Each structure stands twice: as C-alpha cells, then as structure tokens.
Amino acid sequence: MRFRALAGPGLASLATYVGISLFNVYAVSLYLNGQLTLYIHPRYILFTVALNAASLLACCVGFVVTSWRVANGTITGGIALRPSLALLVAGLVLAAAYALPASTLSSSTAAQRADNLNGVQAPSPRTGDTLSAFGAGDALAHTPRLAIEDWVSAFGLEPDPDYYEGQEVDVVGFVFHPEDAPRDVFYVSRFVVTCCAVDARPIGLPVRSPGWQGRFEKDSWVRVTGRFVEAGGGVPEPVAVEPRSIEPAEQPQNPYVVG
Fold first, then answer.
1. pLDDT at 137 over 60
2. Do 139 and 204 share a domain, yes or no?
3. Which of 68, 132, 228, 240 could pair with 164 as two cysteines, CB 3.0-4.6 Å apart?
4. 40 and 90, same structural domain?
C-alpha cells in the first residue's frame, strides 16, 4: 500500500515540491550573486526574492508532511505522475537554468527584435536636459554626460539632424549590427527593460566606422566617444556617431536600461 501511494500521488507530490524548490533556489542564488537584474527589472527584485523565499519554505513544509504521510500510509487521492510535454519542458528549463551560466541578452535577441530598434521611446528623465543643453552656450560641456537612452529619447522628440550635428557623444554599450544596416555601421546598444527580459527592446546609436568587424566582435562591450554627423543613406536615425575613439569596456553591473 505504501509503495502504491509513493508511486502514485505520493511521488507526484514529492516531485512537485522538489521541482518548485529548485526553481526557488535558483532565483534566490541569482539574487545573492547579483545576477537577478539580468532577468527582471530592479523594482521587482524585493518582491521576487520574498515570493521565492516564501515558496521555498512552503515547499519544504509540504515535502516533510507528504513524506510523513507516505511513511504512515495515510496519503490518498491526489494526481498520478504521468509523463507529459509540460513535465518534459519544465524539466528541460530547470536543467538549462542550472547548467547554463546567467548572461545578459545578446545581439541575437536584438536581431530578433530589430523591428523595434529605437522604437517608441518614453522620454528619459534627462531628455529635457538633452534638448535644452543644445540651446545653451556650453552645450558641448553637457552632452557627453548623456547616455544612449537620452539620445534616443531626444531623436523621438526632435528628428532634425541639424539639431545634433557636432554634439559630443560618450556612451557605453554592446556591438550590434542589424541585418539592414550599412556594412560600415554598427550600433552601440543597450536593452530597455520595463518588467523583465521578455519585454526587453533594443536601443542604440549608429556608429560609422569602416572596418569595425576586424576590431570588435558582436556583443562585445565598447565605449564610444566622438561627435554626431548626418547619418546618410541606410541609417534611419537623424545622425550617426563619427567616432574619435572606440575602446573595449567592461559590461556594467546592470547592463540594461530600466524603463
């Protein structure tokens, strides 16, 4: 009787508790390693960690109680453990989560979402500073402080290339080359995350640098300094960066732009 309970609903319940617990442990370990922001917006970190900690505690209690009931032959009913596509997928996802290192989204993801590259971009907190700085006499002293998201937001508000030509640029991002971009242009890019990596969308500034393929690999992080010039054919943005220097850079601790 005890074996039948374990082989049916008992085993199903224990396996469910173990599976959920492993997901919980993985999420908490990402937080402890400072990697949870690779998958979710920072505003949801506390909620995610608290929920996974509570779930882990509940699963541990449930596992102990179910084991006791199986040992005493009192477990009845429940669901039988039947192999299914859902179970197989869940197992593969769990195995991949532990086997593969946590990593940021890459240019392959950006390529899949390239139709939304620099799409509708909500004004960043500094977009007003971007536009107002251009009318000030010390504009060149202000613009190097602006990040990729600031420039992209400004492009949406003011598409006139004359507004940007000659402005200084100093940004950090990963190398991305959309399929429809000119060969001598790459984008210094970041991802904007509103909730989690699922809704991440790419943004970037075009950089005109012939022969960049021989110097930098896709997905490598670089710091680009230079000035804006009119973009020219094949580039939808009003201006492109004429680089003064392109140097390797470390990936930021939080590689995403929070939306």
1. no
2. yes
3. 228
4. yes
| DSSP string computed for 159-212 | --GGGTTT-EEEEEEEEE--TTS-TTEEEEEEEEESSBGGG-EEEEEEEE-TTG
Quick one: tokens of 58? 């509940």
pLDDT at 60: 92
Which of 69, 99, 129 is a domain's end point? 99
pTM: 0.72
Q: State how beta strands 221-230 and 168-176 pair.
A: antiparallel
Mean pLDDT (the chain, rounded):
80
d(CA 78, CA 19): 17
What does each C-alpha distance from 10 to 19, 45, 61 come to in angstroms? 14, 34, 15
- Domain of residue 165, CATH code: 2.40.50
**Domains in the chain: how many in total?**
2
Q: Which of 230, 160, 152 is nearest to 191 (CA)?
A: 152
Segments forming the whole domain that contains residue 123: 107-258
Q: Report which secondary-structure segment, H or E, holds 244.
A: strand 239-248
Q: Tell me: do 117 and 41 sit in the same domain.
A: no
- Same structural domain, 39 and 94: yes
pLDDT digits (tens, 9 = 90+) for 108-128: 888 888 777 876 555 555 555
